[in-house]
Amino acid sequence: MININKIYQWSRTNLFSNWYNSLLSLIIVFAFIKFIPPLLNWLFFDATFRGSSKAECYGDGACWIFIKVWFQKLIYGLYPENQVWRINLAFLILIFSVITSIFVKPTIRRYIIIFLIFVFPFLAIWLIGGFAIDIESLEIYIPILEEVDTRVWGGLSLTFIIAIFAMLFCFPIGIILALGRRSELPAIKYSSIVFIEFWRGVPLITVLFMASVMFPLFLPGDTNVDKLMRCVIGITLFEAAYMAEVVRGGLQALPRGQYDAAKSLGMGYWQMNALIILPQALKIVIPGIANTFIALFKDTPLILVVGLLEFLGMIKLAGANPDWLGFAVEGYVFAATVYWIFCFSMSRYSQRLEIRFSTERK
Amino acid sequence: MSDKIIELKSVNKWFGDFQVLKDVNLEVGLKQKIVVCGPSGSGKSTLIRCINRLEEHQQGQIFVDGIELTQATKDIEKIRAEVGMVFQQFNLFPHLSVVDNCALAPIWVKKMSKKEAEELALQQLETVHISDQARKFPGQLSGGQQQRAAIARALCMKPKIMLFDEPTSALDPEMIKEVLDVMVELAKGGMTMIVVTHEMGFAKEVADQMIFMDEGMIVEKASTKEFFANPKNERTKLFLSQIL
Questions:
Q1: What residues in chain A have their Cβ under 8 A from chain B's Cβ atoms?
Q2: What is the reported pTM?
Q3: Cα angle at B94 between B91 and B100, to 5 degrees?
Q4: Interface-testing mutation among B64, B69, B89, B95, with chain A (most A C-beta atoms within 10 A)
Q5: What is the complex's ipTM, to 2 decimals?
Q6: Does 2.60.120.400 match the CATH number of domain A163-355?
C-alpha cells in the first residue's frame, strides 16, 4: 500500500501537477500505447528470423533473413571469402590490445598505445591489403599474402578502416593547424587560416569527387595513388579543419596566466604547448572532439559517390538485388541500429574521459 | 658595482599609443631586495614582466645577469629559467598535482631525472610548509596554499632572482600572512628579490630599497628608512598617507 501511495504522490507532483501537464502526460501515454506495440510486433513478434530465402518470410513483420543472408557481405564487402580471416585477425588484434590496455599497468599501457597509434594501422593495412617481397634487381617475387585490391574492400570493415585512419590523422593535423592559426609568425598563421577556411568551405561530397576524379588529372601519367587512399586523405584533411577549430576553442579558453607561468619557468614553445596548454585545452574540448569523431563516422557512407561501398553502401547494394527487392526498410533499420550503437559508444566513452581527466575539486 | 645582476637603461614601452614605461632606469645588485609600489596602472607589473621578457620593451636596454634582452636573444628560455616569477593569480597548472607542478620544469627544462626532480619538489614544498599537500591538485588548495605552492614551483628552478607581481593581492586577509612569512624567510635566505606589493609592513621588514612609480615613471627611489621617514616627492607622500 505504501508503494502505491508513493507512486500516486510521485505522479501527482510530476505528471499531473496542473491541467496542461496532465494533458501532455495523457498524450504521451496514448502515443506509447498506439505506436510501441506495432513497432515491437514488426521488429520481433511478427518478424521472421529463421530461414535462408525470401520465400520463407511470412506475416507482416520484418524479414531478418535478408540481413542474415547478406551478413557476410555487409561486414566484409566483396572481399574474397577465403581471405576474410585477415580482416578478422586485424580487428582481433585491435580489440585484444584495447582490452589488455585497460587491465595492465600504466607503464605497459603506454607501449600498447604507441603500438596502436604508430604500428597497428599500417600492420592492419598490410594484413588486409596483402603484400609481397619484391626485389626487382634480383628478380625475387614472393607473394606472402595475396594482394586484395581496395575496390573489393567494403562493408562495415571498410567503414572502420576509413574511420580509424581518418580519426588517427585528422586529430594531430587539427592540433597543428589550431596552434598554427594562433602563431605569431604571419606565414604560418595565414597558411593555417587559408587551409582551414578552404576545407571548411567545401562540402565533403565535393572533396570526395575531387579526390577521385580531379586529383589524378594533376598527377604525372604513371603515378597511381589508390582511390580509397585518396578518399581517406580527403576525409582526413576535411575533418582536420573542423578539428582545428574545435581545438582552437579550447586554446582560447585558457587564461593567459598559464602561458605566462610556463614561459617564466623557462619552457620553450613546444614544451609549453605539449605539457601545459594542450593537456588543458584538449580536456576542455573533449565533447567537441567526440562530436567531430561521431560526425566523421557518420560521414563515411558518402564514399558511395565514388563507387566505394562501405556498410550503408553494401546495404543499398543488397536491397537493389533483384532477388531481394522490397527489403530496404529492414536494411535501413539494421544500418541505423549499428551506426547508433557505435556512435553512442563513442559518446559514452568521451563522457568517461571527461570524468577521468577532471581534477577540479575531486 | 660588479655584482649587479639586473640593469635597466632608459627603458620605454608602449601599449599601442599609451606609454606604460617612461625612461625607466634601475640597477639591482646581487642579494638586494627591492619593493616597488605605486598606484594601479603605474606600470609596476609591466616593469617586472619586462625583466623576464613576458613583455617586450621598445626602447632602451635591459640586462639580466649580463645578457641583454633583445628581439634577437635566442636563449630567452635560459634567462627565464634563472628568473623565478610569482603571479597575482598564482597560475598553478590545474591539471597537475602540486608536486608535479613543481617537478615539471626541472624535468623538462633542466633535464633532471624524475626521481631527483620529485625530491627537489618535495624539499621546496617543505620550505614553504605545504609538503603535506603535495599530492593534491591546485583546485583543492586554499589561496594561500596555492600561492606558496607557486613560490615553491619557481624555487625549484633554483633561480638567481625572484620576481613577485602583487603576490598577496588576490588573497583573503587571513592568508596574506602565511605567504608573506614565506617571502620573509626567502629574503633572509639571501635571495635577490623584486617585489611589487602594497604590503608596507613587509617592505619595512625586508626591503633594502623602495621604488615608487607613477604614470610609468620611477618617481622616487630611496633606501627603505629614508623612503618611509622622509619621502621627497609630493606624490609619494600622498600615496603613503593613503595606504599607511
A1: 255, 257-258, 260-268, 271, 275-276, 279-280, 283, 357, 359-362
A2: 0.87
A3: 95
A4: B95
A5: 0.93
A6: no
